[in-house]
Amino acid sequence: MLKSQRLDEILSILRQSRYVTVAELADRLYASPATIRRDIALLEKSELLVKSHGGVALADGHNRFVELEQRTEAHRAEKLQIARDAAALVSPGDALFMDASSTVITMIPFLRQPNLTVITNSLCVAERMGESGARVYITGGQLQENSKSFGGSIAERTIRSFHADKLFFSAAGVSTSGIISDFYEEDIALRQSMISCSTEQYFLCDSSKYDKNYLFRIGSVERLTRVISDRELKFTTR
């Protein structure tokens, strides 16, 4: 297959699959992983796709959502470390905002503090925290099937009717200047509402997300209590 044909095929596959790994592309296109990586680098330089969690996604701002299961397994060791550190900050009786991110979901087994209240837009968080004995409020709103979460104006209004002691959330990336961003538009306003309606805000960010910029801006780390990562991240704002 000619290089130009292979590049077209990669983009065609991504339009159908949203997200794909290098190994999957190599298998489908009968090419070596090294060849596929060179193709990806060329398409990324042309701003046609972005690297994401061990694979690639389209860079058009509309087709970058990565399935929850894929996100949960990516960088698993780092997420476990971050989850333990984040859960240690929770006190008995706290009211928590917890978003639908895979890193926040990873916190759940470590949240053993009694009398917790959880406000979330995540079906997974609501179910598992309810099973653990926490008092749970779920936002409702428009169901986003791929992430098993709710978004939209109804979810945002629900968040604004609460005030939480602590917020735990994540996003696709953070720039070296401390700007947190994502490629999925629907959750941006909801997380901004969580930031505004909480006393302490904790951004859970494995180091693979550092020095990444995406289309939709959530806010700056300057507004947050702390960034929790698997290694120290340095920002020019601090």
Characterize the structure shown:
- This protein is of the alpha/beta class and 238 residues long.
- It has 2 domains: 3-64, Winged helix-like DNA-binding domain superfamily/Winged helix DNA-binding domain (Arc Repressor Mutant, subunit A), CATH 1.10.10.10; 70-228, Translation initiation factor eif-2b, domain 2 (Rossmann fold).
- The chain is built from 9 helices and 14 strands.
- The protein has helices spanning 3-17, 22-29, 33-45, 68-73, 76-87, 102-107, 123-131, 153-160, 188-196; strands at residues 19-21, 49-52, 55-58, 95-98, 117-120, 135-138, 142-144, 149-151, 164-169, 173-174, 179-182, 198-204, 216-220, 226-228.
Which stretches of 5+ consecutive residues score pLDDT under 50? 61-70
| Helix amount | 25-40%
CATH architecture group name of the largest domain: 3-Layer(aba) Sandwich
Q: Characterize the largest beta sheet: strand count, sense, and whether it forms a barrel.
A: 6 strands, parallel
Give the tally of structural domains: 2
The count of DSSP E runs of length 2 or more, i.e. the number of strands, is 14
**Global Rg:** 19 Å
The CATH fourth-level homologous superfamily of the largest domain: Translation initiation factor eif-2b, domain 2
Label the structural class.
Answer: alpha/beta
Form type = elongated
Mean pLDDT equals 86
Number of helices: 9
